[in-house]
Specification:
Length: 234
């Protein structure tokens, strides 16, 4: 008959649990970074051709107001956004509603990946686009697209920017308004996931990252408590 295993005493359990919570940044000093996707943009060739990209659609404006109302109830000490219009307009809605008097701090390195952005013609021939789309479907990596910022460069740019923001605000909660591809690649960099685009955030969906002790942890992905079925879109 096997002898019964010894039961750990309460001090050992508390110590083990405490170190696990510290390792996952559940406890201890940390910064919370709320990364928010912009509201839905207008879809037209004219809007796509605008400097700064498309503005928010009517639905996107309502989504921005909804997330602004939700965040107004949370203590947030700083607000950041990319240079792209739809992200800046969403951040502006958050700032206008928040009682802390936030002002969006615009960071170019938070911008979305620009597919074919390094091509002189901007729009490749149809056969090249079809082959790239097929390769992206297979790999879900930005490297599928020629004349585009590499997967490694994009991940590094986004991770470095968000890390710099977090390290400016130890122990605080900050908000960053960005883009769907950037959020997915950021999570891939933090978690060591091979795919670049593996999660598609809803418009104004909230992803919570925790930063402390030179490490990252994920608190939540794509929260949408502020969106009902009428407002939810991707």
């Amino acid at each position: 008959m096997n002898a019964a295993l010894p039961t750990p005493d309460d001090d050992v359990l508390r110590t083990t649990r405490g170190w696990m919570e510290r390792a996952l940044l559940v406890a201890g000093p940390r910064t919370e970074v709320m990364v928010i996707r912009h509201g839905m943009q207008r879809h037209s060739l004219a809007e796509e051709s605008r400097p700064g990209g498309p503005r928010l659609s009517e639905l996107g404006v309502r989504q921005a107001r909804a997330v602004a109302e939700y965040l107004a109830g949370l203590e947030i000490t700083a607000l950041y956004c990319s240079t792209i219009t739809r992200a800046h307009d969403t951040a502006r809605a958050i700032a206008d509603r928040h009682p802390a008097g936030l002002v969006p701090d615009v960071w170019p390195d938070l911008r979305e990946i620009d597919i074919y952005g390094e091509s002189e013609n901007r729009i490749p021939p149809a056969d090249i686009q079809a082959a790239a789309a097929e390769e992206f479907h297979r790999t879900r990596r930005w490297d599928a697209f020629p004349h585009t910022e590499s997967s490694a460069s994009f991940r590094r740019r986004i991770l470095d920017a968000v890390t710099a923001i977090a390290d400016k605000h130890p122990g605080e909660r900050v908000a960053v308004v960005g883009h769907g591809g950037a959020i997915s690649s950021l999570l891939s960099a933090v978690l060591g996931i091979e795919d670049d685009m593996w999660v598609y955030s809803a418009h104004t969906g909230i992803t919570r990252l925790l930063r402390g002790e030179d490490r990252w942890a994920v608190g939540a992905v794509n929260e949408t408590p502020h969106l009902d079925d009428e407002l939810r879109s991707f």
